[in-house]
What we know:
Layout: H1 2-14, H2 17-39, E1 43-44, E2 53-57, H3 65-74, E3 80-82, E4 96-100, H4 102-106, H5 111-126, H6 131-147
Antiparallel strand pairs: 1-2, 2-4, 3-4
Amino acid sequence: MHVIAAKAVCFKEALQxxxxxxxxxxxxxxxxxxxxMLNFGFDLISxxxxxxxxxxxxxxxxxxxxxxxxxxxxxxxxxxxxxVPFEKRSPQVTSGLRIGTPVLTTRGMKEDEIKVVAGxxxxxxxxxxxxxxxxxxxxxxxxxxxxxxxxxxx
Length: 154
């Protein structure tokens, strides 16, 4: 019964005008992230996005999805390694990186902040072996998170 009640609450929330505004912002943020990453020279599967996430193919950069996931995670940017079409690496390593925007949107971030996040991702991936870059990026991520707390009213 608790599952039915939870679904009822979710459906009620999804019918609210605020939810539509939120979903539209999720898509805007995802499109900005895709645009920025393309401008930085990253290869995106499908050349962009029409939904809440992007998938970056790291094959041409000689970075595995696992290496990218770990480096970004050290800086407080949590993503998922992901296989890409015609994948040559194992599913435990991968050649791709999946990045979503719902969490950033939930925190209240909009296009300008997404550009900052994209720049941090770029900087880390282009300097993946440099711990000082990851450390500096982690500080920038922490500052951004303080400016956009999960529970702003607390």
